[in-house]
Amino acid sequence: MKRTRLCALALVAWSASALALLPPPLAKAFRSAGVPPEAVALVVQETGTVQPLIAHASSKPMSPASLMKLVTTFAALELLGPDYRWTTEAYLDGKLENGVLHGNLVLKGHGDPRITVEQWQSFMSALTLRGLTTIEGDLVLDRSFFSPIVHDPGLFDGEPLKPYNVGPDALLVNFKSMRFAFAPNLAGNGTDVIANPAFANVTISPLPALAAGDCGDWRSTVGATFVDRGDSAEASFTGRYAASCGEHEWWVSLLDHRAYVHAMFTTYFREAGGHFSGGWKDGRAPKGKAPFATLESPPLYVVVRDVNKLSNNVMARQVFLTLATAKSTLPATTAGATATVHRWLASHKLKMPELVLDNGSGLSRHERISAGSLVRLLLEADASRVREEFASSLAVAAMDGTVERRFQNFNVAGQALLKTGTLDGARGIAGYVIDADGRRWAVAAIVNHPNAAIVQGALDFFVQWVYRNAATWEAQNRLAPIGHATTPAPASGR
């Protein structure tokens, strides 16, 4: 009995030391990138087990970048349901006679994260097919589903025109962004610049001159200037565009939310055969009245694939705010969404004392979570009723999403489901690695360090190491002397 107890104590002692130990090949990989082990938090645990294989700085609060989307999307799948759909509704505020609306048209948004140009065109066609051809009044925008949010798009990184800095809105359409397409014209004597969507209140002049030479950093040579006045904008290109560049595109966020929706409506309602020349104003949809037409989003499980595979920050913010509507009264607020997530975590007995939520996307200098909490979340998701929907939202190594071009020559290609995270001073990767024996490992690695920008190779090596060496590491260290973990034969990582 005494000997059994001593053995048990020895195993506990080994556990405490081996778990905290960063395997030498991994420590070397991070040091080679100029990142000391103390700037790395890393956890590996096989699904279905109760103890991590490796837990290095597992409880340390870290800036996770887009890894925070794992919390938002798992919570959404469970609380809202995989088949949840957002709606955008059109109401007639006036009498419709012979296709003419003598009054205003009201658009009410419910936070749809994914209204594309194609979906919007379908919505506009539905209006005309239902008999609405002319609107004599204005467009009334009901954005009350979300509480008004003061959002400075330039606050995060001084780049207010970047599409990833677009703030959430109950009537978000086409991510409030425009695509400028550049190409040599057919005559070969100039450059065409085409905006999509093409709005009357966004002008383009002058165009860049067509030039010879290498393409190089074409964005720096076109001499772009964007002037955004909120209700109108101007784009000018006073530089040159090399003919060797072929076709390129540049996405820019212009106009404020209300002006953007008005421009989208005016442009595509007319394209659908309708007539409208009114303005816009804020208002509310009429109570107790059925909508004239409704645009329905794709189901949530499709939306979270875009959020995680493509790491879409704007969509993540919309999903996060929508969580507030699951348990709280309207309008949705950031505080309500945060409280909803904390209650949900508590219902799963997932303790995350270090968790700090801001907007649920990870595009924040304030959000914090630990690598240990991320792995416990992944283990909970793997055992949940939304296991398949959650796992399928992650990018497949070397196959799609943010890791499509990574792991191309690694054995783990196609065998890892991953979420990446990238901010200045922060890099991370988390998800599931399925090794050659079919063992499924939940993994998370976060780096917070000034050299984080050059640590991608070390993170990729970590994923490959788990695929190749995790099982061996476990077997060799299970019986290792107390405090002395052994080193498995190094893998080439290729």
In the CATH hierarchy, the architecture of the largest domain is 3-Layer(aba) Sandwich
Helix/strand class: alpha/beta
- The percent of residues in helical segments reads 25-40%
User: How would you characterize the largest beta sheet?
Assistant: 7 strands, mixed
Mean pLDDT: 93
Rounded radius of gyration (Å): 26 Å
Number of strands: 21
CATH class of the largest domain: Alpha Beta
CATH fold group of the largest domain:
Beta-lactamase
Estimate nothing, just give the exact number of structural domains.
Answer: 3
The named CATH superfamily of the largest domain: DD-peptidase/beta-lactamase superfamily
How many angstroms separate the termini?
48 Å
Number of alpha- plus pi-helical segments: 12
Strand content bin? 15-25%
Shape summary = globular
Poorly predicted runs of 5 or more residues: 1-16, 481-494
